[in-house]
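Morning!

As promised:
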Amino acid sequence: MSNSITTFVLQGLLLITGLVIATDESLSNTETKDINDQKFRTIDTGIQFPYEERLNVRPLPHNHLLSSFEFQMNSEPFFPSDSSSNFDKYDHYTIFPKAIEPLLRRTDVRQLHLRFTRGFWDSEEWGRLPHDGFKSGGSGVELWALIEGNSKKDAYKKWKSLANSLSGSFCASINFIDLSKTNYPVFSFNPQERENEGIPLFNSTNNLYLMHASLANEPICTENLTPLLKLLPSKGKSGISSLLDGHKLFDSIWHNMAIDITTQCVNDDSYSNSGECFYEMEANVDVVAHIPSILARNKNPIPKPLGGDDLHCDLSKPYDAYQCFPSPETSEISFSLSDIFGKNISGSNDLSFTHSRICASISENWLATIKVDDGLFGTDDNCFDLTENRNYDIYMESGSSNKVARNDDVPIYVSRSLTGYGQDHGGLRTVFSNPTLEPVRLSYYESLPWFMRIYLSTLKMEVTSDIYQNLTFNDIVESQYYMPAIDRKRSTQLEFIMTIPANCTISLTYEFDKALLHFTEYPPDANHGFEIESLIITILESAPYQLRTATLLLYLSTPDFSMPYNVIIISSTIMGLIFGTLYNLITKRMVTMDEAEKILATRSIKYKVMMLKQRILSKLGF
Amino acid sequence: MEFTSVTICAICATIRLLGLWAFPSIGNLLDKSVEFSTPVTSYRSLKEALVLGMGSSNTITFNNGYYDGGVVHHPPLLLQALQGIPIAYHDYLFILFDCLILLQFVKLTEQVKRQNKMFINIPTWLPALVYAINPLSLMSCLSKSSVIFTNWCIINAVVQAINGNIPITAMFISLSGYLSLYPILLIFPLINLINLNSSNPQKVNNTIRLILYTIYYCGFLIFISYKINGNNWNFLRANYMVLLNFEIVTPNLGIWWYFFIEMFTEFIPFFKGTFGLFLLSFVIPLAIRFCAQPFCASITILGWLILTKPYPVLGDYGFWFSFLAYFVPIAGYMRYKVFSMLLFIHGIMLSPIFYHLWIGSGSGNSNFFYAVSLVNALAIGTILSDLIWAMLRHEYDGETPNYEIKLAQV
């Protein structure tokens, strides 16, 4: 097999060199701007790799725009039975990132999921999350992986190694994932599928371990986007990934980057160790931008008050030169993707079986056209294939932008909040609201840090609907898993499988104590509080869906950070004072004052000198 | 005025029931205050264990027993015993235990009066009445802090020691050690108490018997707990290592918490050792120095333990203050009665206020509450030194007090 790969690649290299020579001539009289980009492209007939990229743009109500970038690639096939020390073959990565594959092999990862998410997805206005929520994470960084290992300890070691490596590759604090942040989900993240889908075990004596951790306070920034772009074969230089730019992407209401890697084996009989396997990687970037504010910023990078002529006054109210009620947001809108992302799409990708594709999910009152160099073209299905190496742009306009292609409604709304006041006790309140006419069966996954000492004996359930007044917690919960936290070693893990009845709102509340930490355990800005990771809800039946609540900000009481020396000194003084007093009391002799004076007199230096003098004098015979 | 034990019990129960009736939520409130509850004695962690523990019908249960987590720190036998009593009756159970402690106080007074002429003038009802109307023990009872069971064991051990009943003394002192570890150190003054009126060969015999019985009972309790806990030793970590290691840093009235929050990580183990030694330091010296007054020595050692233990609560203080009634005959010797009492009241009054300023309103910081815990330590220290001074004076004067004579120590 390795031989065939080698010949395949050599052929490919020959082809590319041939083509470079050919294209150099043909390009000399056309545009010269993109010559460097085009040098290493195979145009029509070149070798193709298992790579695909797609962009889907979808206008959302109130002039928001969701852009979903999807990239898919497969690794070169490999045989699990080949050990890495087998020198007969050399590892060969075509389009699959070289940074990732050795890492997966070293840590025996069968599935890897990494999420970088920030912002607020307004599900009441915008409907379901892209990809039904399975490609988005909670605010911050979220990592979960399925790791093969011979024991839990072994798997954790690999997990730690994986986290440290990813931390380096993605410039994120993933290395802060430790024992106290790692959980082993039981009901969530579809562990049932693990058995059904037959995720391969490369060594049949091993087991698969699912581990999950999230870092809710991690800021997401361009330094996380650049490594993601570097994983793509186009490196963000051509195709739709050339749109992605940190400055614009993170200037949005909600953004999400996801990487999912799974191991696929061609031979079903994976346990026999003879099957051919490959890694499949999907990278997603989703971003929701508010179009008018981006257009305004493009026009006016430094915010300035608008001139009188530019004001849009509400004509139904009084207005003159001195007063103006701003009109509601305009529903007439036109923009191009280059306005939103600050760049044009430079060319297509020619590595893959299919061309880069851009689709606009729009209703009739929207118009989407592709701008190729200077010409505008439209299609029936509003999908555009990027076939040539030109500059592309998508132009969209609408006269009534609030009428958008309706997204399906979310099957359930879940929100969680902190209750109580003070920094020693608090409560958590989770509200489930099922707007549909069918009961929703879901799994509930909550992980809380150890410094929230929760008391589930205080768990209370409230039901708002009259019909379900007699509903108890036992009625809605099917199975539960509760792993209490251990200080500094383990976080609380709480999982339920529960059913929320149709058209019903249920709230669950329970109380917790806040622990005090050692002064070195507080982060640099201790009074900012601690972010508590999202609650993860997965709908199990009919239409699978996953959603996460907003993260919470938990305030802990803080000691005075300037006090260490003072406390050591003052406490020790008090202890010394008491100790000294008691020690004197129980070791000394009780005498009357007169006796004491006599005894003390014999102890004074004056007395001793006098005695010495007397003795010397008596020795001398005086 | 004379009070019989029945009257005092009635007073005790009435006050507590009135408290429950007038303020139904006071238990919860007190249970959440740092003065009356600590992670190792709080009722809410006890309740968590009872509701989610083995054999409960709750939907959510601990997957791996009580102690696989950081919430439950009560020993398995206590949990097992309370499991049998419905939670609705717990309020009454705690009141009942307060009454049992009272009865033991009455019994104790009768015995010490018989044993030692020094106490002859103390009214039999006085210590018990102090316990019954003392607001600290009253509120501790309402907060349902598990410290009440330890206190009951301690007073039983003292009563039985004066009786000279070695096996029962050993049983109660082991039980109190089993419940909250440190009271086991009271065995040293109790040895003297048992030996008070015995001849020398008998003394050795008694001492050996008491120690062996205690070891036997401790081993038995630990073994039974091991069996009850599903053949798992993890209750030892949850109950005793937490105390020895001061694993849960929460604000309380003791001297440990702020010291270890502010301590540099590298030195934490060293200073935990130091604080542990500090706690041990005066137990044996006091027992030896006052081997002729073992009952008073027990009281001072109890005070010393309250001063130095990692998680003190006001329930401990209330219990100890009732014992101070036995010092009434020699109160004349005390030098700073007013000062130490005012210091103590100052601490008690300011602690909820300063705690609220720090935690609740955020207008103060942790140093406020730290200052209160220092004042408390100082108050206990002053009271202790006064008690010891009074005992020394009593020792010097013998039976006839001489308040005129001025004494000094060299």
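The CA atoms of residues 20 and 26 of chain B lie 7 Å apart.

Hope this helps with the figure draft.
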